[in-house]
């Protein structure tokens, strides 16, 4: 009985999700109900043997949930759906037929880690992908975040900027905005260190701003001095920082040496 | 650790003096495998009766060399000799051995003289301790794995052995159990379903932790880590590491493995300096390169990559080491590419050795090196030129566009890789010259110093801890001291009483 109800709700969900534009509100309601249904049937975090069809349905629901979370801009919810999907992707990978949504969702997760600047997690996740290393380059869903990361690390920010339009799935773009914010801050901190002064016009292009007013507010936020007559930004050079002697540390380590020496002699 | 070894050696010396004759026999003649096994039985027996795990450790130390020498017939003989005629254990043990095929027959011919030379044993009536049973099982599993044909049988046997061990629950079994777990893992891994064994390992690890069974625990943590890493489950492995404490009393080989796995996890998590320390520990604790070349090579491969990722260039001598030279050839080329900072050479090398790196599971780590190559390249340029246009940088480093070059140089300046300035209007980079060695005073030096001191102190303390004192050895000394004091007292008394004859003092006169 519960199974039947689940089935109809699932079909409902699928219909409202596939509709263009999809009915996000209704999806959310249905997802909440379906999750309760999944828990009741023990399919949310399956253990042991299950009917393959049931598992596929459960996986589909969770996948829709993950994508739905992105569309409603709810990242923590995406995180939850993704960790629930992990079970299906890893433990049941030998039983289930591969899902066409698997790699897009994995890629989304990678981008999410990237935008949150969790580089260590990014690499751990990347390492645990069930893909041989050369297949990563061929898989557009995965190669996109991988390239982004590489460019970010080496500093080819313009490539990142240009790649934002080339997202393989629509949902990737959701993360692009926050990614651009991160990049801008990165570039700004580089500029502070690398230039003495910079013409406004060039700063505009370097920071990917469209209008001067955007740039001005950004510059204000970072505390840059703007010389409008010369139309240039000058960066305050940081003076030699006074090096402070770490007294506390020196004392404590000297004491520790003394103590240890006493033990030895 | 040298002092540990020394103390152990002394230990053995002491022990040897008290050793019973039969033991000496085993030592002297280059022992036949059968005799060696039998000698081991004696040791195990003693370990059980004296509750001294040291003897068992000694038995297990010879395991690898022993396994290489024995065959089915030898094991069979050993079983026949140690068990009474109609023993249930014996029949079960024998049933696990492959029935003598034609191959075995001629092997048996070889081994018959050995059993003939050993004195005809008195018929044994009592059942030997269960430790011996488990030890024999361990030998059988290893034998099955060695021949390679009987993986499933080895798996079954190991499974049953584990059950038996758990039912017996004897502390004197612990160190043998640790080895059995290793054999279990081997069996499952060769069978290709390491993941299946994981729940079993986890359960056993829990029990071992509760019982403070350090040997087994150390072995099992390594088994689990290996199983996680084999399936690239770095998250789980990391969690396991953070939730468990590796027993401090574990042996060096276990420590070496543990450090290697830790190094691998840390490297994936971009924590290169920790990975570096762990791998260094692994190298230090590993058995000599000639004994375990596989491990030595694997650790060094990762070590080289991690060192590169840290921005260091590995020692040239590593690549000249006879054990490492050949397997590390691909890595050497990578090092060369990184050192010269040539992106194109780097990419060519990666492509050329891609399969090698994938087999070593270092490919993703190596692709991360790309940014290091660029950094080294920029650094070299900044040292060579005082003024260079972005366009030239772009050409020299094979970057895609001038725009990229500008960002990359900017980042390098911010990260402190080079000391320079960008002049956007003119499109060039001015470099700060050679006076940039300002760092290196003050806090940083103190920190390095205290780290090194800390290491030395740690080494000293560990060595002190590792020294071992045989039980009751101090009694003898005490007795000696007591006697000496007694004599002194007497002497003093005699002097006082003036009883001392002149003859007593100087006999020559």
From TrEMBL, chain A:
InterPro entries (alphabetical): 26S_Psome_Rpn12, CSN8_PSD8_EIF3K, PCI_dom
Record keywords, A-Z: Proteasome
Highest taxon of source: Eukaryota
PCI domain sequence ranges: 76-248
A Pfam family recorded for this sequence: CSN8_PSD8_EIF3K
UniProt GO cellular component terms: cytosol; nucleus; proteasome regulatory particle, lid subcomplex
Protein's GO biological process: proteasome-mediated ubiquitin-dependent protein catabolic process
Keyword Cell cycle: no
Entry-linked PANTHER family: 26S PROTEASOME NON-ATPASE REGULATORY SUBUNIT 8 (PTHR12387:SF0)
Similarity comment text for this entry: Belongs to the proteasome subunit S14 family.
Protein name: Proteasome 26S subunit
Organism name: Lentinula aciculospora
Automatic annotation (TrEMBL), chain B:
Pfam families the UniProt entry points to: PCI (PF01399), Rpn3_C (PF08375), TPR_PSMD3_N (PF25573)
Location of the PCI domain: 256-436
Lineage: Eukaryota, Fungi, Dikarya, Basidiomycota, Agaricomycotina
SUPFAM superfamilies in the record: Winged helix' DNA-binding domain
GO molecular function terms attached to this record: enzyme regulator activity
Biased composition (Acidic residues): 497-509
Record keywords: Proteasome
GO biological process annotation, one example: ubiquitin-dependent protein catabolic process
Residues covered by region (Disordered): 1-32, 479-509
InterPro entries: CSN3 (IPR050756), PCI_dom (IPR000717), PSMD3_C (IPR013586), TPR-like_helical_dom_sf (IPR011990), TPR_PSMD3_N (IPR057985), WH_DNA-bd_sf (IPR036390)
Biased composition (Basic and acidic residues): 1-30, 479-496
Protein name: PCI domain-containing protein
Family: Belongs to the proteasome subunit S3 family.
Highest taxon above the source species: Eukaryota
């Amino acid at each position: 009985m519960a199974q039947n109800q689940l089935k109809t709700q699932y079909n409902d969900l699928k219909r409202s999700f596939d509709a263009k534009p999809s009915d996000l509100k209704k999806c959310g309601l249905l997802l909440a109900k379906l999750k309760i249904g999944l828990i009741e049937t023990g399919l949310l975090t399956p253990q042991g043997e299950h009917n393959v069809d049931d598992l596929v349905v459960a996986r589909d629901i969770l996948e829709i949930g993950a994508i739905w979370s992105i569309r409603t801009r709810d990242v923590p919810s995406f995180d939850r759906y993704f960790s629930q999907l992990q079970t299906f992707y890893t433990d049941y990978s030998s039983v289930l037929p591969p899902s066409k949504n698997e790699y897009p969702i994995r890629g989304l997760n990678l981008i999410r880690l990237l935008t949150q600047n969790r580089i260590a997690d990014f690499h751990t996740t990347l390492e645990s992908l069930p893909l041989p290393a050369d297949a990563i380059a061929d898989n557009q869903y995965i190669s996109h975040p991988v390239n982004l990361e590489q460019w970010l690390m080496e500093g080819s920010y313009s490539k990142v900027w240009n790649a934002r339009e080339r997202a393989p799935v629509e949902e990737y773009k959701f993360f692009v905005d926050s990614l651009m914010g991160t990049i801008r801050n990165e570039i700004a901190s580089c500029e502070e260190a690398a230039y003495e002064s910079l013409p406004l016009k060039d700063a505009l292009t370097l920071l990917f701003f469209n209008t001067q007013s955007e740039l001005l507010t950004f510059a204000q936020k970072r505390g840059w001095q703007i010389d409008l007559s010369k139309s240039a930004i000058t960066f305050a050079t940081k003076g030699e920082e006074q090096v402070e002697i770490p007294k506390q540390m020196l004392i404590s380590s000297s004491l520790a040496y003394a103590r240890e020496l006493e033990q030895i002699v | 650790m040298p002092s540990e070894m020394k103390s152990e050696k002394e230990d053995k010396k002491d022990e040897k003096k008290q050793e019973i004759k039969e033991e000496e026999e085993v030592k002297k003649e280059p022992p036949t495998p059968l005799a060696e096994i039998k000698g081991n039985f004696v040791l195990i027996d003693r370990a059980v009766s004296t509750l001294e795990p040291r003897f068992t450790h000694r038995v297990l130390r010879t395991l690898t060399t022993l396994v290489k020498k024995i065959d089915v017939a030898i094991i069979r003989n050993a079983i026949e000799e140690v068990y009474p005629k109609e023993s249930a254990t014996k029949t079960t043990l024998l049933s696990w051995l492959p029935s003598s095929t034609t191959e075995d027959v001629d092997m048996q011919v070889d081994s018959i003289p050995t059993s003939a030379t050993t004195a005809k044993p008195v018929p044994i009536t009592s059942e030997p301790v269960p430790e011996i049973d488990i030890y024999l099982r361990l030998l059988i599993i290893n034998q099955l794995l060695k021949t390679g044909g009987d993986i499933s049988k080895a798996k079954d046997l190991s499974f049953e052995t584990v059950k038996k061990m758990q039912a017996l629950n004897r502390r004197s079994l612990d160190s043998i159990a640790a080895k059995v777990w290793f054999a279990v893992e081997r069996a499952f891994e060769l069978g290709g379903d390491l993941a299946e064994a994981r729940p079993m390992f986890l359960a056993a690890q829990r029990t071992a932790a509760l019982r403070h069974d350090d040997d087994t625990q150390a072995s099992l943590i390594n088994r689990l880590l290996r199983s996680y890493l084999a399936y690239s489950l770095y998250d789980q492995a990391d969690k396991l590491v953070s939730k468990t404490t590796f027993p401090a009393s574990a042996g060096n080989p276990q420590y070496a493995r543990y450090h290697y796995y830790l190094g691998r996890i840390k490297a994936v998590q971009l924590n290169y300096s920790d990975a570096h320390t762990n791998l260094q520990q692994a190298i230090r604790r590993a058995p000599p390169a000639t004994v375990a070349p596989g491990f030595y090579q694997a650790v060094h491969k990762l070590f080289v990559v991690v060192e590169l990722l840290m921005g260091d260039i590995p020692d040239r001598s590593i690549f000249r080491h006879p054990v490492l030279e050949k397997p590390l050839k691909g890595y050497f080329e990578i090092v060369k590419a990184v050192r010269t900072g040539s992106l194109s050479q780097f990419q060519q090398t990666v492509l050329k050795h891609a399969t090698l790196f994938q087999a070593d599971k270092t490919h993703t780590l190596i692709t991360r090196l790309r940014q290091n190559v660029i950094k080294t390249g920029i650094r070299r340029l900044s040292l060579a030129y005082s003024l260079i246009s972005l366009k030239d940088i772009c050409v020299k480093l094979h970057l895609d566009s001038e725009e990229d070059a500008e960002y990359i140089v900017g980042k390098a300046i911010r990260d402190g890789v080079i000391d320079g300035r960008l002049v956007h209007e003119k499109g060039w980079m001015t470099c700060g010259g050679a006076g940039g060695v300002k760092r290196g005073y003050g806090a940083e030096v103190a920190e390095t110093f205290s780290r090194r001191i800390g290491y030395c102190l740690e080494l000293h303390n560990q060595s002190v801890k590792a020294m071992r004192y045989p039980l009751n050895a101090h009694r003898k000394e005490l007795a000696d001291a007591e006697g000496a004091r007694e004599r002194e007292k007497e002497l003093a008394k005699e002097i006082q009483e003036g009883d001392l004859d002149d003859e007593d003092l100087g006999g020559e006169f």
